[in-house]
Amino acid sequence: MRTFIGIRLDDCINEINSLMDRFRGQDSKANYTKLNNIHLTLEFLGEIDAEELRIIEDIFSTLDFTEFSIELFEVTNLRDLIIIKVKENKHLNSLHYKLKQKLKENGFKLQNRKFFPHITLARKSNLKIDEVISLKSKVNKIYLFHSKRTSGGLHYIPLLERKLAKNISNK
Fold it and tell me: Angle at Cα 28 formed by Cα 3 and Cα 34, nearest 5°?
């Protein structure tokens, strides 16, 4: 099954939906991300089997990380995509790095790409966008998603969920 590890953006999903509704009015031919598929990818894994799923479950259970917040700051284009950029964040970078290291230690072959945290709103868009925004979302869980293609399009189905530890200094 085709998989990736990611974060949901529940705290600002309504604002993201409003942005997409506005863009749909300007570019109805683009392929917009389904609202329940909105996410930030931490690591794309590709096809995994049952044994690799068990290993990821073990990695998730040993992951020692505290919740944090991310800020979404710019809606722009990346080739024919409409994306939201995520402001540089040491906690997000650290979580990505630790996950990547644990996955590599356990034999996963990962893409050798620079981490570029963003949220994809639409594909195949002709709309040119450069808009400053200010949205925040708490990151208190990570997920292993199954990317399943059906006749209704792509669906990102959570297979595993890992709650991050509460940050008591934020209380």
Answer: 25
Residues with Cβ within 8 Å of 14's Cβ and at least 6 positions away in sequence, in order, are none
The verdict on domain 2-166 having CATH code 3.90.1140.10 is yes
Residue 165 near residue 65, CB atoms below 8 Å: yes
Task: Count CB neighbours of 75 within 10 A.
Answer: 22
- In 3D space, the residue among 59, 139, 50, 68 whose CA is nearest the CA of residue 98 turns out to be 59
- Could you give the count of Cα atoms lying within 13 Å of 147 in the half-sphere of its Cβ? 15
CA distance 51 to 101: 18
Task: State the alpha helices, DSSP H only, in 10-89.
Answer: 13-26, 50-62
Q: How many CB atoms lie within 10 A of CB 165?
A: 11
| Entry pTM | 0.93
pLDDT (tens digit per residue) in 100-158? 999 999 999 998 889 999 999 999 999 999 999 999 999 999 999 999 999 888 999 99
Residue-range domain boundaries for the chain: 2-166
